[in-house]
Amino acid sequence: MSIFEYNGSAVVAMVGKNCFAIASDRRLGVQLQTIATDFQRVFKIHDKLYIGLSGLATDAQTLYQRLVFRHKLYQLREERDMKPETFASLVSALLYEKRFGPYFCQPVIAGLGDDNVPFICTMDCLGAKELAKDFVVSGTASESLYGACESMYKPDMQPDELFETISQALNSSVDRDCLSGWGGYVLIVTPTEVREHVIKSRMD
Fold first, then answer.
1. Which domain of life is it from (predicted)?
2. Contact indicator for 122, 136 with CB cutoff of 8 Å
């Protein structure tokens, strides 16, 4: 078993009209044994910027703490929040710095940039960025997530429709992957509000 599959995970981000959604499953496992069903994989950097970390759970938590530290230093120095593109470059540099003993994480970054244009990207554990205009996925359920998102996504969705689409895609994908699932956590971010939802899924 790959070290990336040790804890199991599913993270997906999707773009709407001046908004975005980021979602993850809630299972923390040790291979096929479930340890917790309320594990957090999506973290807030600031009001309009979030990161989802799939892969090894301990590395995800360590990486998140380092990113929060770097972002706070940036806020103190620049007196403003980091743009999503800048943050993606920071994450990429931080991962590449550790390339000989990498963090076993595959980040998904989602944020609202200038003029509330949504930005999403993902990268591998060495920080090679992959930008997208529609959706990005990572984790053990990524293959079925690609298929579900490909068939359900359509451009310029409003927040409510975006929530419905990403929830259905996440639920149907984790049902096909025994290492992720046990509920989902969905964030819908618009220029004026952030909506959090916990969705139920199969518990077996």
1. Eukaryota
2. yes
Residue 142 is assigned to a structural domain of this protein: yes
Q: Which residue is associated with the tokens 């000989």? A: 100
Number of domain units in the chain:
1
pLDDT, tens digit, 9 for 90 and up, residues 151-186: 999 988 999 999 999 999 999 999 888 888 898 999
| pTM for the model | 0.92
Asked if the structure places residue 204 within a domain, the reply is no
In contact, 83 and 65? CB cutoff 8 Å: no
Q: Which residues pair with 28 in a beta bridge?
A: 36
Strand bridging mode 28-30 / 105-112: unpaired
Q: What is the CATH number of the domain that holds 69?
A: 3.60.20.10
Q: Is residue 20 in a domain?
A: yes
First to last CA, the chain: 21
Q: Report the alpha-carbon distance of residue 154 to residue 151 in Å, rounded.
A: 9
Q: How confident is the model at residue 66 (pLDDT cuts 50, 70, 90)?
A: very high
Residues 13/152, Cβ–Cβ less than 8 Å: no
**What residue type is assigned to position 25 of the chain?**
D
Count CB atoms within 10 A of the CB of residue 186: 21
Using the predicted structure, report yes or no on whether residue 201 has a pLDDT greater than 90. Answer: no
pLDDT tens across 27-65, in order?
Answer: 999 988 999 999 999 999 999 999 999 999 999 999 999
163: left (phi over 0), alpha (psi -120 to 50) or beta: alpha
